[in-house]
Amino acid sequence: MTRFQHVKSLFTSPVLICIGLVLILLAYSGCSTPEQKVWSTSGSYAPWSPDAEFVGIEACGACHQSQHDSFVRSQMGRSFRHAEKDLSDAKWEDVQPIRSDFDDLYYQPFSRGEGLFVREYRLSGKDTLHTRVERIDYIVGSGQHTNSHIYEENGFLYQIPITWYAQDGKWGLAPKFQKEGNNYRFGRVITEECMACHNGQPKFVKGSENRFEFVPEGINCEKCHGPGSIHTEEKQAGIIVDITKEIDFSIVNPGKLSPELQLDVCKRCHMQGVTVLAEGEAALDWRPGKALASHENVFWPRQPDSTTHFIMASHPDRLAMSSCFLESWKPTSGLNPITCITCHDPHSPIEEAGADLISATCVNCHGGGVGASAAQRVQADLGPGSGSGSSGVRKVLVCTDPSVVAGTSTAACASCHMPLSSSTDIPNIRITDHFIRVPGRLSQKDAGDQTRFIRLASLIDPNPNSHVRAEGFLTYFEQFTDRPGMLDSAKVFLDRATRQGLQNLLPSWIRLWHLQGDHASVRQAANSSGDLAPDAWTYYRIGEAFADVAEFETAIFWYQKAVALGKDHLRFNDKLGVALTQAGRIQEAITVYDEILIRNPLFENGLNNRGFARLMDQDIEGAEIDFKAALALSPDMELALANLASLYLNTNRTDLAIPILRQLIKKYPLNPEYIRIFKIISESS
């Protein structure tokens, strides 16, 4: 058995029908009619059909009990769950508070019974100036590396600002929550793209940014095999395929896909970076067995030291740098192409596989390896039956470790050739670097240099068109950097795409101009084009361009178009409310904010902006309540602080305004208006 065939057998064992299901098969065996399509033998995959629905892991477990039982113990099976103390890997008693140095806030995780919580607070001496407590609703991560956390408000999901780092056994701020002085606090949205990889298939509220009707508990079978409704229906109807001889097209079996498509199943989530979805695709649309390039492309920068600096979810990219991988994919090598399942059984926990099993995979090509004779280690004939699938391919082995040479080594091959490494995006973790190489052969030239940008590498489609490349630079600018050069590169590719006659470029041009602050070009495009794509983000950006020049009625028109496509997108609704307020349509604005806050009472921008609208409507008491509510959620919210200080000054409560002005001056020292007002008040008092 070859190494490839050995792993593939994990996916192709005959279907086992449980005793209870046999009775169901007898009852349903006559239900299939000649006119009814039989997907199992159709030659096209049923999970790609729009009629295929997700049925959940328990439906799979009815027939595939052993795979179900091992998978729920695996890292993927433990990826996402409701927050309960017994389901957490973290420590919850006597935890030292975590301080965010940038904004002088503390975070204290704690439990009450099975409930999990985090308290945010700020101190001044022994006085508590601010406190906010949120209940944790979901735990993300198996605990092999981390437990991160999510809270839910009426279906809107946000990340909790602290993470348990399992390998170091400690709490810390969540990844990216203090990068370059940025603490998202409780406002980082969990989008459908986040959920597409960290969990099974949810029910996402279309047009929202982060609202879900249903959230499953963990990655499940259908993530790799596709939605299983048609598969289960056909098995219940007695339609059985001998999968040792044929492909059962009612479900996707990754073990019977081509090596390229096998890799795509894993790349969908383990090749992260800057994702650019194909036109018409949403994050949750992709189905296993389809070419990933038809759904998305992923970009990531190459820098002088991209060899030793890499992000956590870059395993296929790292593997593709390896000589082992590259050699196996050569048509003339006689080897089975290496894919992720060459070494990994996705049904089982990594720790249960053990290092010996993975080392055995290395030995298949490297002639006996650990414990082999010196002759075997120096030169191995990888002929038929040796695991290579070749006929007489010869390889010279290069392991010179003394214990390996002596045949006494018990270390796993990966411990030297795939060392544990840190990642650039998640602190306090150590991951297996899938770049297989000989120790000590990496060049130290430019080591550590992560400032010089060389290129934006395309990791899924090696030859994307100019439009897709432009979108890659725009997305990288928005999500990872504010370097203007990214926008310059995006323009180069958009110009090229225009010359090439590519279609549907206007939304990308508007996105570029919006990011450049070139609102005039956005307005000109909106006024002169009658063929704008129905895209909520494009409509929103046009609204911003008209609001920039105080053309509020026109801005309202475009914001309303954005909201029509994204009714549960809180930021779009918030911008519409602001424009209505600025246009003097106060009651309409208040209605918009009332609806926002019914959906999500914790949306702090909505509270502040409704407070301002109420102030314009002479509702002083209502405005003060809203400003205070916004500051209870976000104590450094500049607009809410300024609005409340202004309200106090204009209602002759100077004593209440002064401490707020001091806070504004301390937090936002570059705004001279706060200093000017404070000086006037001080001189007149």
Topology:
Layout: H1 3-8, H2 19-28, H3 57-61, H4 65-71, E1 80-82, E2 98-100, E3 105-112, E4 115-124, E5 127-135, E6 138-140, E7 146-153, E8 156-159, E9 162-165, E10 170-173, H5 192-198, E11 203-204, E12 212-214, H6 222-225, H7 229-236, H8 259-270, E13 274-277, E14 296-302, H9 315-319, H10 323-328, H11 350-365, H12 374-378, E15 379-382, E16 393-396, H13 402-405, H14 413-417, E17 420-421, E18 431-432, E19 455-458, H15 466-480, H16 484-499, H17 506-516, H18 519-528, H19 536-547, H20 552-565, H21 570-582, H22 586-599, H23 604-616, H24 620-633, H25 638-650, H26 654-667, H27 672-684
Antiparallel strand pairs: 1-6, 2-3, 3-4, 4-5, 6-7, 7-8, 7-9, 9-10, 11-12, 13-14, 14-19, 15-16, 17-18
Helix pairs in contact: 15-16, 15-17, 16-17, 17-18, 17-19, 18-19, 19-20, 20-21, 21-22, 21-23, 22-23, 23-24, 23-25, 24-25, 25-26, 26-27
Describe the model.
The protein contains 27 helices and 19 strands. It has 685 residues and is of the alpha+beta class. Among the domains are: 80-214, no CATH class; 464-684, Serine Threonine Protein Phosphatase 5, Tetratricopeptide repeat, CATH 1.25.40. Strands 1, 6, 7, 8, 9 and 10 form a 6-stranded antiparallel beta sheet that branches. It has a 4-stranded antiparallel beta sheet with strand order 2-3-4-5, with no helix packed on it. Strand 4 and strand 5 (127-135) form a beta hairpin. Helix 17 (506-516) packs across helix 19 (536-547). The longest helix is centred in the middle third of the chain and has 16 residues, at 350-365. It is globular.
